[in-house]
Amino acid sequence: MSKKFEEVKQLAFPKAEVETLNWWKKNKIFKKSLDSRADGIPFTFFEGPPTANGKPGIHHVMSRTVKDLFCRYKTLKGFRVERKGGWDTHGLPVEIEVEKELGLDGRAEVEDFGVAEYNAKCRESVLKYKHLWDDLTSRMAYWVDLDNPYITFRTIISNRSGGHLNSFMKKTWFTKGIKFNGIHRAAERFCHPMKSALDTRKPRIPLFM
After folding, report:
1. What does the buried/exposed string (b/e) look like for 109-133 if buried means 16 or more CB atoms within 10 Å of the residue's CB?
2. Residue 103, H or E segment
3. What CA–CA distance (Å, rounded) separates 145 from 126?
4. Contact predicate 87/149, CB 8 Å
5. pLDDT in tens, the chain (209 residues)
6. How much of the chain is in helix, strand and coil states, percent to nearest 5?
7. How far apart are CA 5 and CA 110, in angstroms?
8. Residues 6+ apart with CB under 8 A from 186
9. How far apart are the first and last CA of the chain?
10. Alpha carbons 72 and 64: distance in angstroms, whole number
């Protein structure tokens, strides 16, 4: 009677981990886990996208492990769990890195440099460390579609997001019981160098992109 599994007398965990990762990749196990649930009830998962112009850290491994656990659990329960990766390409980290690279300081210098040129540099910079994220994602066996990610600077994403927000505002889902007095509460603070509003979490809302 042939053995179904190879006998392991002494397990070398690092070696076994790499072998398992390679086997999953070679046999397209992630894809098969989706195909096997083709008729399952959809459980939609969009990753809260990291900013790809920042390097990944151990805290990303921890949070992604939790995300992956939920997705795999729902798959085991019979759901079809599409996992779509994404990249957050808006925000202060992108602006700071580009301004340092170009030697710019403040809104006036950015405008003198040229908004279109500045935007192009931001788009170029924002995916600077994407290869590190891809390597981390693969190495920790985090199953998510990286071949067709949603990227927030794409026009279709911005337009759809704006359209949804506009619809929500018209239905007063965001405004019920709130008095604005002509200015959103998150924009009551102000960044003087860039002459842009501040929200409660970031030093400044991105002016461009």
Report:
1. ebeebeeeebeebbeebbbebbeeb
2. none
3. 19
4. yes
5. 566 777 878 888 889 899 999 999 999 999 999 999 999 999 987 777 888 788 899 999 999 999 999 999 999 999 999 888 888 887 777 888 889 999 998 888 989 999 899 988 888 888 888 899 999 999 999 999 988 888 887 766 666 777 777 787 777 666 666 554 444 444 444 454 555 554 444 444 333 33
6. 45, 10, 45
7. 62
8. 197, 199, 200
9. 65
10. 12
Task: Find where tokens 């009551």 sit.
Answer: 188
For residue 133, the SS3 value is helix
E strand spans, the chain: 45-46, 83-87, 145-151, 189-191, 196-198
Strands (E) in 8-167, as ranges, are: 45-46, 83-87, 145-151
Q: 208 and 126 in contact (C-beta within 8 Å)? A: no
Domain ranges of the chain: 10-88+130-153
Residue type, 10: Q
Distance, CA of 129 to chain centre: 13
How far apart (Å, rounded) are the C-alpha atoms in residues 70 and 104? 44
